[in-house]
Amino acid sequence: MKAKALVITSLGVLGLVAVPAAAWFLASQPRRASNLTFENEGTDLSARDVESALRELSQRVKQVEGGQTALQGAAMLQQSQIGTVQAATEEHRAATEARISALEGKVSESVTTRKRLEYSDGASSTSVASSYSHLRDIGAFAKSAATTGLLLTWNTHIDAMGEPGTFCDFQIRVDGKPDQEKDGGGGRAVVYVPPNSSGGSAPVTVAALFSHVGPGQHTVGVWLRGTSRECLENYGNFPRAVILEEGPRAP
User: Which site among 19, 83, 129, 150 is 20 to 30 Å from 1 CA-CA?
Assistant: First the structure.
């Protein structure tokens, strides 16, 4: 009985203590972060409480983000400037190359270049008429510019066989065209059969000036007309040549 009385008495005391404690707990307000102490030792923060520390960290994050944004903007601006410089450099390079090419063209037009077309075989025809016809090709060459002139000098030996007074008219041409548009043209070597003879023979040197031959590959050939029974060029197959000079076009 004494033990049971002791238990009841203890429960009563606990009840008296618990009721005021619960009332105090329910009546108390949560503690603010500004009232919580922040230990900033070992950090680079100056805050002394949690709320200030959080605010300081937030400001620093914003500063970092702002710095990153500024760096990104600077990088984009720099990339744009690099692109502008590259475009200007490429434009300048293209303009420089164009000027160099133009200067090279002017230099090539102002300098005379010489080429030699050599051959040693002869050619002849027994079907000569009053109009020019193709006798032979001497060789091919390349002309470098469109605005230059072309001078051809031809050295050979020609023969005419037939009645006295008949003749053979040889003409040097480029791509089948004479040096002039009008009938006849230059670059001609003519040999007659003299009186009381059945043939005529002569060494000849002729020159022809071509002013409108374009750049690229061309062919030098010989064309023939006449009244003789037979016309021969380089009879005996001696070494012959045509000298080509490309230079400033004559006014």
Answer: 19
Q: Name the residue ranges covered by the structural domains of the chain.
A: 32-110, 113-248
Which distant-in-sequence residues (6+ apart) come within 8 Å of 35 by Cβ? 49
> What angle (nearest 5°) sits at the alpha carbon of residue 162, between those of residues 160 and 164?
95
Q: Between vectors from CA 127 to CA 134 and to CA 223, what angle results, nearest 5°?
A: 20
Please provide the DSSP assignment of 57-94 as one string.
HHHHHHHHHHHHHHHHHHHHHHHHHHHHHHHHHHHHHH
Question: What DSSP state is assigned to residue 32?
Answer: P
- Using a 10 angstrom Cβ sphere, with 0-12 exposed, 13-18 middle and 19 or more buried, the burial of residue 170 is buried
Beta carbons within 8 Å of 214's beta carbon, 6+ residues apart: 143, 146
Computed on alpha carbons and rounded to an integer, the radius of gyration of the chain in Å comes to 55
Task: State pLDDT tens for residues 44-97.
Answer: 777 777 788 788 788 888 888 888 888 888 888 888 889 888 888 888 888 888
Q: Do residues 123 and 223 make contact, with C-beta atoms less than 8 angstroms apart?
A: no
